[in-house]
Amino acid sequence: MAELMKVNQLLHLQVNTIDEEEAKQEYKARISDVRADTILIEVPMNERTGRLKRLYTGDELNAFYISDGGVKNYFQSSVIGFREQGIKLVAIAKPDPASITKIQRRSFLRIPAELEVSVAFADHTPFIALTEDVGGGGVSFICGGEEKIEASDHVNCWLVVPYKNGTIEHINFKAEAVRIKPLESGRKIVMLQFSEIADRDRQKLIQYCFEKQFDLRKN
User: Fold this and answer.
1) Is the pTM of this model over 0.70?
2) Which among 177, 172, 204 has a CA at the least distance from the CA of 193?
3) What is the CATH number of the domain that holds 143?
4) Which residues of the chain have pLDDT under 50?
5) Per residue in 80-98, pLDDT tens?
6) Of the candidates 169, 127, 143, 129, which has an alpha carbon nearest to the alpha carbon of residue 20?
7) Which of 45, 80, 103 is the last residue of a domain?
């Protein structure tokens, strides 16, 4: 089970919104109090601009906090009100500990998902495939047996990632094919491990995995 949040810990937030630009913004807020069903946080600050973020009751949030060992603990929440305790505080719903996704840098979560990925390598013609699973450390995709990709090949890819709020991200990464698994159908599964991906893009992919896992748990 994930390590629980503590007073004075930093909470990293993104607002779940249909506004594509706003959905990309990252905020941080210090935890002021942890109660039975509520977490009180200071007004969030934009990590890039330093500006304070005005939240509204009902705003949906994707959040994570970092516990011992650099483990990131992801959860979803929503704004349920505001409090005055010398300074203005934002009250958000406290997540069920069982719903918190714990992700260690060396053991990224893998989630079953069919996403469109464009694959280019060496002098071969780029092709489009569908992923079988995705995660913060790599992806696997299924392609036709005629594609000449082999283990140890290095590829350049673009992955189309849709979020629940309707926004779509195009994530670029470079990866190494670490395993090829032939299928009875004549197709094959190619398992990729990221060799180069921007940390911001990795976080976007982890956010997608978190949303997907949350939906899988509900079902």
Assistant:
1) no
2) 177
3) 2.40.10.220
4) 106
5) 999 998 899 999 999 998 8
6) 169
7) 103
